[in-house]
Sequence to fold (162 residues):
Amino acid sequence: MICIALLFLIKMTPFGLKGWNQCIQSNVKTFFSLYNITNLQQFLLNVMIGLVALLFVVSFLLLVTVIMEKIMTSAVVFVFFWILLLLFDQMYLWPVNHYFANFMPLRMTTFSHYYVGNEIYRIFGSSLSCMAWSVTLSGLLAGIMLASAIGWEKMKRGKGLY
Fold:
C-alpha cells in the first residue's frame, strides 16, 4: 500500500493539484486516446490492471511450483515463460498479440496500448475493449490457476478435493 502511495505521489506531483483533473489527451503518449478520462482516473485504472497482472504472475508461479515440486525446476520454467513473453513483445505479430500476449502480464503493464491501440474483441456478439477483456480474462485465468494449484496440492497430500 505504501508503494502505491509513493508511486501515486511520484506520478501525480508533476501535474499539480489541478493537473490531476486534466484529460489524458494532454500527454504525448495518450494524445490520440478515445477515452475521456483524467490523469487520476488513468492512474487508478493502471494500478488495477497492474494488480491483476501481479495476481496472474503469482498464481502462475504457484501452479508451476506445485506441479514441478522443486524450486529450481520451477524457476527454469518461469524464466522460460518470461523469455517467451519478451520475444512476443519484441516481434509484433497481430494474431499472437490479439489471442495470447494481450492477456499476459508483460503486455498488460504496457499501459499506453490500452488508451491508444483501440483494439476490440468480439465476444458472443458484443464488443469489448482490449482493456476490459484482457483484465477480465487474465483475472479469470489467475483464479483458475490458483484453484488448480490448491487442488493439485490437496490431491498430492492425499486429502482429495473435499
